[in-house]
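Summary for the steering committee. One of the milestones for this cycle was to obtain a three-dimensional model of the protein with D-altro-hept-2-ulose 7-phosphate bound, which we needed before selecting residues for the alanine scan. The sequence and ligand used are listed below.
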Amino acid sequence: MSLQDRIINQFSDSIQTKQDAMASLCELIEFASQKIVEALVNDKKVLTCGNGGSAGDAQHFSSEMLNRFERERPALPAIALSTDTSTITSIANDYHFDQIFAKQLRALGQTGDILLVYTTSGNSANIIQAIKVAHDRDMTVIALSGKDGGALAEVLNEADIEIRVPSNSTARIQEVHLLISHCLCDLIDQQLFGG
Ligand SMILES: O=C(CO)[C@@H](O)[C@H](O)[C@H](O)[C@H](O)COP(=O)(O)O
Ligand SMILES: [Zn+2]
């Protein structure tokens, strides 16, 4: 296969995964946006986390909340738990990597806040630990996942929302997670500030 054929395959797979996700996930994305809006109008905030490329997704979403998405509007409260290297390295060094998000959440998470997690496998232990702390704090969890949902699917409760991308490819799932993040930003702005 030529290099250009490989590119065409990547684009085709990405387009197909997005079409599959569009067909199955619209209602859940709408519901997740309503949960976030409900938290924001009650002076709560969104905390985000993920590993690797998903750490970037978490940071990407929080920056669009704190700064702006596509229109001028007031800043919205969000914190990415994957950005503070001093805190992350000290928690991992002194305790365990599994605790890097959970310990921050114990300090920053409050009842009614939203924990927005990004994980393609659903099996990242530090995400599972963060979800357990979120439940202790009566926070709602919104999980952007993929594959078979992994261990995450078993720790979520009925008040949480799992948006599982129908794919087994980490890259394809991440590409759809980014699109879902942008949908959430658009829907949040629309519900809070109108059209
Ligand atoms: O971006 C990529 C692969 O596309 C990687 O950095 C990937 O995010 C990392 O392997 C993560 O550790 C995977 O974590 P998860 O999605 O299984 O929770
Ligand atoms: Zn990636």
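Key point for the committee: The longest strand covers residues 140-145.
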